[in-house]
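Researcher: I'd like a candidate sequence for this fold, 493 residues long. If you have to choose between options at a position, lean toward the conservative one.
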């Protein structure tokens, strides 16, 4: 109990640190929401109070205050870049705080993965301040999308902090949100296909539409369409941005506008009578709620997110099935429908919550994978017309490439199968041959002769990760796996 009390005190300190990170002033000269300089100074005063209360003065490695209190934002433009542009400050503060305040074994278990995750989170959080607009022209969609990336950074940071408190269930539940965030942001950043819905289309009208499209009389912009019942889904190119004479046009993603158009709190049409204020027309409220529901079902539900990834060619059917593996796993910690204690802390563990190497590792792997994907998707977005530069992108790009290679054993979509997966596939094929019953016994294959497309994907990320930490030799086939990271506790988890 005493140890837990100290951990709660440490958690309060982490929350105070979060206030500092969120209060960092934006880049001078950028068009962002007003943010008083005093807010940043007040946040540092809060940290002073925490340090005095815990006897940990200076542990956060506080730099000298960036601005004197009496300076205005206009004065700040003449002084230099804010702390968020000085590179590494956010990650360094978070890591320094964890090292000094949290005796978490993961700091030693993951000497590379944990710092990499923190630096990737910082890269996401500082994108807005690092935008370098061309020709003195700021396109607002760049700032909006950078803010989306910053929003993801906050969720990823929450997942890291939950994991360092051994609260792996909340960490994975948060990461389920992050998974959807990354996929939706990919559509927001670069989606170029629009789904239109036509209702009450009878057989005669549908036949006539098909004839007109085949004859080239109408529907020249239709990429694809499907009819279910009396509803037709029509896929067309995205929304063209209006440009001044002589300027190049460009396509805006329909998902970009959904950020403002969709209202998650509106409720279904049937609930609108509950919200009647006596002034609004109930029928108009129901119509608006019906349109809102249509937006969700067309663009934002899980099934529609997958469909939009497919029509925008961001994923194929195989990739979608692999993404669903991680969606199902993480959903187990979002919805309280099954017992998950053994999954998170191992079998017969009566000390819950407690540190678990495998849950901590998987959480950090997900954080790194989602952060890299978001950064790469955002960069691709900035290189399309109208383009914008990102300060010191080469450093971020190199970090993304290095970390993506280091976490490749997760075999997240975009990675290749690991040697473990090839061994598992070779044994599976041998067992299948025995089951076929030709009496010849198993016919082992060299695991490295199996192509990537032949290797079956896994169904349980946690079970697979645990097995990868132990070596084995299959007696019937002679095919074995030598773990690069053997752990004795893997056999008993």
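Model: Candidate sequence:
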């Amino acid at each position: 109990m005493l140890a837990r009390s100290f951990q709660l005190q440490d958690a309060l300190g982490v929350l105070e640190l979060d206030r500092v990170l969120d209060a960092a002033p934006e880049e001078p000269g950028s068009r962002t929401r007003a943010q008083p300089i005093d807010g940043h100074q007040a946040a540092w005063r809060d940290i002073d109070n925490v340090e005095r209360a815990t006897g940990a003065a200076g542990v956060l490695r506080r730099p000298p205050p960036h601005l004197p209190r009496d300076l205005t934002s206009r004065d700040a433009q003449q002084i230099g870049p804010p702390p968020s542009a000085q590179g590494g400050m956010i990650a360094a503060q978070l890591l320094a705080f964890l090292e000094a305040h949290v005796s978490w074994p993961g700091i030693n278990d993951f000497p590379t993965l944990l710092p990499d995750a923190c630096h990737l989170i910082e890269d996401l959080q500082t994108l807005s301040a690092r935008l370098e607009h061309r020709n003195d022209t700021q396109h607002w969609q760049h700032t909006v999308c950078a803010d989306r990336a910053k929003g993801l950074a906050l969720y990823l940071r929450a997942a890291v902090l939950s994991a360092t408190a051994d609260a792996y269930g909340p960490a994975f539940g948060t990461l389920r949100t992050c998974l959807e965030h990354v996929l939706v942001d990919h559509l927001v950043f670069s989606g170029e296909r629009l789904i239109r819905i036509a209702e009450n289309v009878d057989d005669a009208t549908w036949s006539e539409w098909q004839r007109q499209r085949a004859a080239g009389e109408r529907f020249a912009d239709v990429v694809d369409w499907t009819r279910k019942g009396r509803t037709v889904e029509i896929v067309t190119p995205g929304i063209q941005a209006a440009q001044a004479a002589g300027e190049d046009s460009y396509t805006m993603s329909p998902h970009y506008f959904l950020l403002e158009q969709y209202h998650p709190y509106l409720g279904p049409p049937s609930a609108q009578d509950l919200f009647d204020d006596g002034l609004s027309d109930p029928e108009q409220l129901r119509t608006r709620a019906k349109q809102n529901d249509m937006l969700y079902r067309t663009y934002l539900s899980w099934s529609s997110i997958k469909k939009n990834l497919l029509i925008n060619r961001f994923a194929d059917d195989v990739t979608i099935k692999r993404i669903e593996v991680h969606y199902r796993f993480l959903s187990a910690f979002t919805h309280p429908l099954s017992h998950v204690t053994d999954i998170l802390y191992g079998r017969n563990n009566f000390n819950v919550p407690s540190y678990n190497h495998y849950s901590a590792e998987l959480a950090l792997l997900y954080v790194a994978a989602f952060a890299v994907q978001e950064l790469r998707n955002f960069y691709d977005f900035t290189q399309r017309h109208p383009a914008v530069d990102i300060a010191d992108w080469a450093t971020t790009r190199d970090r993304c490439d290095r970390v993506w290679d280091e976490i490749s054993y997760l075999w997240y979509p975009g990675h290749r199968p690991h040697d473990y997966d090839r061994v598992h596939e070779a044994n599976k094929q041998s067992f299948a041959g025995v089951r076929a019953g030709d009496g010849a016994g198993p016919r082992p294959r060299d695991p490295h002769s199996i192509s990537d497309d032949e290797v079956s994907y896994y169904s349980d990320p946690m079970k697979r990760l645990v097995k990868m930490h132990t070596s084995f030799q299959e007696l019937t086939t002679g095919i074995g796996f030598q773990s690069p990271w053997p752990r004795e506790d893997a056999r008993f988890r």
